[in-house]
């Protein structure tokens, strides 16, 4: 040990050697006492190590002929901090990490890899402190063989928190069964500008819908942990806190110019709900909120989150967000100090947090502040039982509930993924062409999304094994009645203006009874993608028009897609347009030129099955729009819950969206009776007035009348889905949370099938006693 | 007097009869004492009357064969309040008011009309209180024969506060010489979204530039009044307070979602500067700022404006803005109370303020609050000397400085208007085609803006007498050398897709040495325009694509204009494009297809002269962009002073504007030496490196380094124009206001010819001791 190292030994108590009988090792002691005891034994260097998550996890190992070996990089990292706080992305696989089936760990060998790393970390740690393994689980674990679920925007379209909770629970089982611990999940970003490439990661534009789904996520992944997390449950890091959906121009990680009101009413409720539901951690966002980037924003991280909301969990910074603060502090040491002082506990990839020891010595941070952060990291490790069961094998052996999905992972995951996809698909327009009638015996399946699953997955997905998933074409072939002739031509690529494939598609359309035209965008990263240091795509390559870093000004699909649709439509054969997309592209033509239009968002690998089932009428389309669909980028913003200001139309365009938030057709129709109010409960009679069974999402909107601030036109305050047989009537009961109506004297309650429909729905007036 | 009227007599002292020897009538007493005395004599009804400005002024009179007569409407109004507080728009003339040369008052008879009304008001007032005559003076007095100046956006392009101050002084002379008192002038709105139809009313996107011009406006109009305004000076109502330039989607009077930082750094500085310069009044804006419309926003009007800024002037509400508050208060009485309690003194057209007596009686407002507002109205009347000289004739007779412009109004006004137009014209691109060489003896003048002055004027202009002004065609015919053949075809209309006129234009272009193609937009209201109750255009009629209420999503000119430009360009004849416009339209083609491109904004009636002088090289183009020019609406926002966040390009478009804020070419070139710093003074050597004299605007930008909040990329902090002969070198000195750099430790000073150029300019580092 050299002199410099020695200077780190300035902990609050004398350095002690590890002791197997120490309090912190006693599983019967309280976590608080164990954490306090452990902290008191740690050196400054060891403490700083706990706050770091510097390495890209895929650099920690190398595949060998017989398994895995650890790299020098990992050795250097654990030596530097005499252990390791957290390791990001050990199992991450994608074009950026460069990990694929040839180099990475699959379902079969991930636990062994995790245990290999963990054994090394524990061995290098004087006090035997295990590392946290942190993984991306945005819509399924982003690892080889991880089940891919539909993206969040599709989840938003389901309006089905219960189903999503099951999917989240499944993802947690997969994650933990592979030796990882902490799940990074986008949940808090609100989709206010579809130009943003990360729109697909949002549950939609509405704070209430996002809150309900964030709660479901936390419940599903974490269970009801109490002090200890079950071995098949995963603590969640909710991304991103806060306001990232409001960056100007839809530009990734740019500033937001939000006022306090927008921030609190639109962008914070999902975080508040997640914190109340017990989320273990949140990630501070890149963007600036009213003066400072979130990672350097004490008003946000400390005053609001910790003090007002009494959040006791962990705050992680987004990748390299701490180092960015050096732009105004002058160097990375002070950048790290600013982040820690603002409320960040654990950094990601940054250099700044590696110098926290120096920051303490320079007086930039107080050691108590550092200790508080270390306490939160250690606390989470104790809650995970990592000191008792640091290895995946142990975890699984002691699981209280046998991990059903681990027993039959492929089937359970696929079924849940397909169920979510089915529930997400939203029918926007239908002139009667759907469901496909039995008289349609010749179907042409056309378009760049028709015969591939590559673009169904969304961003943040690992490479898939060949043969995984079903395309629209495959789904139709699987589910169509025998004897139906299905033809296919791609017509054009997703991007660019090459129309040379259109004549072939037109010929098939002309010879068919019905054309299914699958259009859309893609977030599929390829090895050619040029990545920024934080893994965001820096330049769109191949056919990428969406995903992190891939923002789009004009919201247009590749021009050839419009040409294809026009040409197919001109044949006179009814064209059903299926959009596979991570944001609402501006496709006003699709409404005019199609016999029916539906959006599947990114439905996941088995989206083709779900789409086919719905096209053929085996399932009722039950998705509802979680975002307003704009006519063009020029009319943005178009969210429904703007202030109650009457917008005159633009001279050249309406100010209203093409399709309203909440909109979605069924194959049957529903009638809603007038709402009946009793206390804070609203009852409404819903009748299936059509000839098929179907599901409607009963949406309760509030329109404030007498109130203390200028109200929004409408606010979604409750929803309840109900499935009814043809002709069936049921009374649906919805509950209002009085907290949502704070500051209001009277308000109208309107129950309808979409925000637009609510504008003309029969209201009932609620009078609140203030 | 009936019982109800009697109930109004609840003033703080007994009702007294008017008394010619009363203190308030004594001109040697202090204004404060006079106001206090007068207030003490007033009934509640009379007080409420002082806060009202309900009538449309043009409804107060009717033209007769021999002059004017007063209407029943005016009689009813003065009877209702036993007098009249203020009268809006007595001299207003436009399509909305329906006033034209046949029905309204021109320069010759306005004073007589004003005096007729004033005599009636004073006669109806028990205490002989004269009315304030309030007029729109956005770019010259919006009355028949009022001199029309270029719109504010053009004024912003001059970067010439001194010249603008002269124009403002001229407008004040015209206003007062016609018997009116108070000038409503747009100055505070910052142009952040060119979709907004009122962009033309903004000085640009930059708070510093807007502040300097707002100060010039106040100085020019008000002079240096001390207690009393000179008879040829006019108190100014600065419009609009605050944040109206940031309404979402560029939608007129919609909410803004601004945070405190954007509000304070971008949208408030011009107001702060105007208040410091002594502005007599501000107008509360329509838009909501973080919870409440400005007229009902005590945080803005009282806490910020009156308490923190110590503003002692008048706060006027925008038209019908008070009544809009009934949306949340439940009725107009409480709406009026909310506005008064928030800080509004004088309403405009509203019913709410007429019920303030009832509001007092219902306990919704305290009489002291009402008294404070009345005091401010009366105070302004005393400062104007209205009690001594209520009539226009008296005013002019006692003018301290003889109103030069009144002596020769047409010439002086026209010269100033033309000078502003000349200074505003901005050359964006020039491949050498300009100035038009003497070898070009055949010039084709084409396009919908070529031969008309109708669209040069902008919104808020009165009907012009036939023959007023010069078009581009007329200007070129006037200034071109003898023997130059000038031909003309319109080619197409401003709006729509009719291309039938293009062949004629192409033929002329083909036969010419040079084509001048005048394109653009229009804010010209016509009798067919459909107006909202507040006078905003409700639907664009005829060729309107800009102006209040005329917001534009796509920022595109009429499609035929693009076709015309393409066709003319295809002839091979060099095409010089002149844009006459009230916002930056998206015309990326103009840069590619033209030999030179310039924007004249709305240059006013004599804009054609100014444009011709510059095209022919009789004057150097010296305008600089006060706004960033976008490539399209899809990439908004594009202002230069965003936070220092590196924007990756959109997939389909750059995130950078087509032309940068501050950009503008000269016919000569300039070289800037490195900046030299001495204290807060920056010196830079500027050399005219070309062969002609010319004017450059030396722009000083600050780029903050070590600072307490996340900085903007650049901030304009000083500018200075300098005119140099060919080859001349001059040292230009700029002064930094240390207040502008609060919270900053070190900053780079960059001096350049545009914001974009500043990004790569040699910096000098300024260290501030904190």
From TrEMBL, chains A, B:
Signal sequence bounds: none
Annotated keywords: Hydrolase
Residues in Fibronectin type III-like domain copies: 696-765
Record carries keyword Membrane: no
Protein name: Beta-glucosidase
